[in-house]
Amino acid sequence: MLEFQNITKIYESKKKQIVGVDNVSLTINKGDIFGIVGYSGAGKSSLLRCVNLLERPTSGKILVDGIDLTKLSGSKLRIARLKIGMIFQHFYLISQKTVGENIAFALRAAKTPKNKIPTKVTELLEMVGLTDKRDVYPGQLSGGQKQRVGIARALANNPSILLCDEATSALDPKTTLSILKLLKEINQRLGITIVLITHEMDVVKEICNRMAIMQDGRVIEEGEVYDIFAEPKEPLTKEFINSVVSFEIPNEILKEVNGQVIKILFKGDVAGEGVISDTMQRFDVKGNFLHGTIEYIQERPLGIFIMELQGETAAVNEAKHYMEQRGALVEVIEHV
Amino acid sequence: MFDFPYFISMLPDIWKAFTETLIMIGISLSISLIIGLPLGVLLFVTDKGLFWENRFVKSIFGFAVNIIRSIPFIILLVALFPLTKLLVGSTIGPVAASVSLSVAAIPYFARLVESSLRDIDKGVIEATIAVGATPWMIITDVLIPEAKSTIIRGITLTVISLVAYSAMAGTIGGGGIGDLAIRFGYYRYDDTIMISTVVILIIFVQLIQLIGEQIAKSIDKR
């Protein structure tokens, strides 16, 4: 378990203080894939770097399985770091060492017996699918392959936590997916807790089970990814959700609409279309679909429909009430 | 102008002068590598934000390096006579000249090493800190290998500077090519010796540059 307790990070520059992280408390459970989302400058990177003390928080505690890392220094901190792997946007491999040597470096840091290193390197290369690249220098690898080496290096000492600092932001969409798949596999097979920061909502939707949204150094919203996708509360959260699940309806179309426009949301197993057709039959309203989609988040469907309801106000209200009773979330969208 | 038979007759003297130059450069280069490399590393790792950040050490060594670097070599040469006498027992000859050459070359090479290390992406160093590596591992396995190629170029530059300095050292008793050029070419208006020493030095420097560049390129895996 990883806990942030009242973490604050203040950067002192010549004349002013900049608050990078502002009193953040978060609990990340064992086995979570936890996504921290925010625009650049929101403090997510600083927060992540506090975990392995690449940056020391100005105040607060970082608890890993109950041990406060901020109390450690020197060799004790180094030993604690062996159990926290980290991968980076720009990979940061040692360019003058082969893939195999880069991984062996991490093993040597943990004082792995010399004769055990080659087999361990082989195992790690197999896990990330780079067995044939052992004697190649990083300069000859593609971005995705470099990140795989980074992952192998990060996992060398069987960490309990893997930190991902914008790990897929420098990769193309296809490579991003393959890296995310690998991370998910690692999470499931080895039970490693993954904390990742990103500005890409797609990444979170793809692999995270829990998430937090950061703005101006603070966590403004956190919870299960599914719940946040279904019912985002903060404007910034909505903005991020809209970047992957967008419901822009052209003004041209809205102009023609004279009934009430509503957004209907079905969570999980509620069969959306069934509820809507039942509603149309029971009440004297006419429905007109403007938009609709079913997103799968954490393999759970999330149905979102936008429709126009025409009819008497009373009937429309009853229809909405009925849909709510059947488990839908109904929201009226204002339009001109 | 150039008297070829005379040049042939002078070959043994030229060869002797050249070996003296090689001795001066050889000794002072070895010493400056042995002391300058660790000093350069120290200057780098004690800098702000690095794992051995230490303002006190950084400023003491940085100051000492700057002091030596700001003294003109010809003055340093004379000023170090007492030290040379103490270490070698004499102030004449290539070995004696190596003392002041080393003193001048150490800070020069150390600064070159420091700037080579500064070119390494900070992220690479950070990634190895995150992996839990010891400072010693980071120095020997990350900093030096990553900067290897630019350090080789630094060695090339140091050798070339030493060639120039050794000529100066030669004039006040060090011997070598520079001494020969001054004694014959300057004091006796001996064009043949002047031209041959200049040509030898040009070829020598070109060769060092070429070899240095080749090595630097061949070991770089980027």
Automatic annotation (TrEMBL), chain A:
GO terms for molecular function: ATP binding. Residues 2-241 form the ABC transporter domain. InterPro entries: AAA+_ATPase (IPR003593), ABC_transporter-like_ATP-bd (IPR003439), ABC_transporter-like_CS (IPR017871), ACT-like_dom_sf (IPR045865), MetN_ABC (IPR041701), MetN_ABC_transporter-like (IPR050086), NIL_domain (IPR018449), P-loop_NTPase (IPR027417). The keyword Nucleus does not apply. Keywords: Amino-acid transport, ATP-binding, Cell membrane, Membrane, Nucleotide-binding, Translocase, Transport. It holds the Pfam family ABC_tran. It comes from the Bacteria. This is Methionine ABC transporter ATP-binding protein.
From TrEMBL, chain B:
It is found in: Cell membrane. It is a multi-pass membrane protein. Keywords: Cell membrane, Membrane, Transmembrane, Transmembrane helix, Transport. The keyword Ligase does not apply. The chain crosses the membrane at residues 22-44, 56-81, 87-110, 154-173, 193-212. Residues 18-212 form the ABC transmembrane type-1 domain. Belongs to the binding-protein-dependent transport system permease family. It comes from the Bacteria. This is ABC transporter permease. Coiled coil: none annotated. InterPro entries: AA_ABC_Transporter_Permease, MetI-like, MetI-like_sf. It comes from Ureibacillus galli. Pfam families: BPD_transp_1 (PF00528).
